[in-house]
Design goal:
Elements (H helix, E strand, L loop, with lengths): L1 H13 L13 E6 L10 E6 L3 H10 L13 H8 L5 H12 L3 H11 L2 H26 L9 H20 L4 H7 L1 E6 L6 H9 L17 E7 L2 E7 L9 H15 L3 E7 L6 H11 L13 E7 L19 E2 L8 H16 L12 H19 L3 H19 L5 H9 L6
Parallel strand pairs: 3-5, 3-6, 6-7, 7-8
Antiparallel strand pairs: 1-2, 4-5
Bound molecules: guanosine-5'-triphosphate and magnesium ion (MG).
Protein name: 5-taurinomethyluridine-[tRNA] synthase subunit GTPB3, mitochondrial-like isoform X3
Length: 426
């Protein structure tokens, strides 16, 4: 196979051949790397063919006589790199995230994971556990021996305690990393006709929702994925909140409230020229003032108050309005205030998703949380173990959980799920 590849390389380098009348090989560039310094660790030849399916099939036909040659499968190069120990599982996940990154923040986070930061951290933790386990096993084997260093078990205990604190801190990250990977839920709400749909269309730069002067235009929840100031978000437009309307709009209001519960960030929109109306007052009292606190699910929500239609205000501003929380002025009509809004959204979303440029590596997948939690649980068994053999076994279980994040440790099923996301080749 290796010689087959080099023959292929030579042939591709030579250019057109009789089997390839359309001179497709002129469109082929060759990249050859010797193992173990290649991406996969093996001798590699990559052919980069410029052209559509017809050109590619012409090239494949021309090279078809090379024994063992076939097109790479989706994720094959990465799978081979994994098999040769060039990448561990968290790095493979980072590569998959990089391929799918749609925003700058996702790209930076994926690069950090691909650089192996999370894997290295777990490696360090696993090493701590190996030392603690060595202490416990030494005590089991030589506990009676006078030569055994004093306080071995206390040393193991203090290592475990320090590790528990570190794991707990990571697990209390409010799932920022997972939000950064899959997008923060940003829900636009407000009384009818405040300009919610206008704002959603402005932020998503496409006509997602119908805009009309008639209050109660939006009924269903309309969601669209957007890049908001460099962060991934799932932006939801919702029905204007009001009581006492027909059954269809009431269902819309019910859905809007349900969606609000799931929001990571609520963007509350009011008509700046209509702050004294009952619907604005009611919205301020029931959503804005109690908001920015807890959703019923117990997670912390953030709230941003936007006073839209600033173009309708007199030059001196919205006028006296008691208990108006911090807010931004915006005009969806003229675009005035949009830059300030995007800047504030960036700060808010960095708080919701975590800033990928700073701080410790984020946990971007449920799998990461599962193993860190499993490790933490095993450490609590260590502390509660009635005898030393059980304590040592608990440490081994804890270490196995970390190995799933630090090294190979991945099962075929996990790999299959990840590789399904890969494009052909890489
Ligand atoms: N003058 C002015 N009009 C605006 C602005 N933003 C929206 N409008 C108008 O306000 C009306 C309502 O806008 P929508 O975006 O449909 O409001 P909404 O909050 O989605 O309304 P519902 O879906 O009915 O709850 C439309 O006629 C818009 O053109 C603005 O900044 N200035
Ligand atoms: Mg609307």
């Amino acid at each position: 196979m290796r010689w087959g590849l080099w023959t292929l390389a030579a042939r591709a380098a030579r250019g057109p051949c009789s089997n390839c009348p359309d001179r497709a090989l002129h469109l082929t560039h060759l990249l050859a790397t010797r193992g173990p310094h290649s991406f996969t660790g093996e001798d590699c030849v990559e052919l980069h063919v410029h052209g559509g399916p017809a050109v590619v099939s012409g090239v494949l036909q021309a090279l078809g006589s090379v024994p063992g040659l076939r097109p790479a499968e989706a994720g094959e190069f990465t799978r081979r790199a994994f098999a040769h120990g060039k990448l561990n599982l968290t790095e493979v996940e980072g590569l998959a995230d990089l391929i799918h990154a749609e925003t700058e923040a996702q790209r930076r986070q994926a690069l950090r994971q691909l650089d192996g930061e999370l894997g290295q951290l777990c490696c360090d933790w696993a090493e701590t556990l190996t030392k603690a386990l060595a202490h416990v096993e030494a005590y089991i084997d030589f506990g009676e021996d006078d030569n055994l260093e004093e306080g071995v078990l206390e040393q193991a205990d203090s290592k475990v305690r320090a590790l528990e604190v570190a794991l707990d801190t990571h697990l209390r990250d409010a799932r920022r990393g997972q939000r950064l990977r899959s997008g923060a839920h940003v829900v636009v709400t407000g009384p009818p006709n405040a300009g919610k749909s206008s704002l959603v269309n402005l932020l998503s730069r496409k006509p997602v929702s119908i805009v009309s002067p008639e209050p109660g235009t939006t009924r269903d929840v309309l969601e669209t994925p957007v890049d908001l100031a460099g962060f991934p978000a799932l932006l939801s437009d919702t029905a204007g909140l009001r009581d006492g309307v027909g059954p269809v709009e009431q269902e819309g209001v019910r859905r809007a409230r349900e969606r609000l519960e799931q929001a990571d960030l609520i963007v509350a929109v009011l008509d700046a020229s209509d702050l004294a109306s009952p619907s604005s007052r009611n919205f301020l009292d029931t959503v804005v003032v109690p908001g920015g606190g807890q959703s019923s699910g117990g997670s912390t929500q953030r709230l941003l108050l936007v006073l839209n239609k600033s173009d309708l205000l007199p030059p001196q501003g919205p006028g006296p309005c008691p208990a108006l929380p911090p807010h931004l002025l915006l005009s969806c009509l003229t675009g005035e205030g949009l830059d300030g809004l995007l800047e504030t959204l960036k700060t808010e979303l960095a708080a919701v998703c975590g800033d990928p440029s700073t701080g410790p590596p984020l946990l971007t997948r449920a799998r990461h949380r599962h193993h860190l939690q499993g490790c933490l649980d095993a450490l609590s068994h260590y502390k509660g173990a009635e005898d030393l053999a059980l304590a040592a076994e608990a440490l081994r279980v804890a270490r196995r959980h970390l190995a799933h994040l630090a090294g190979g440790g991945g099962t075929e099923e996990i790999l299959d799920v990840i590789f399904r996301d890969f494009c052909v080749g890489k």
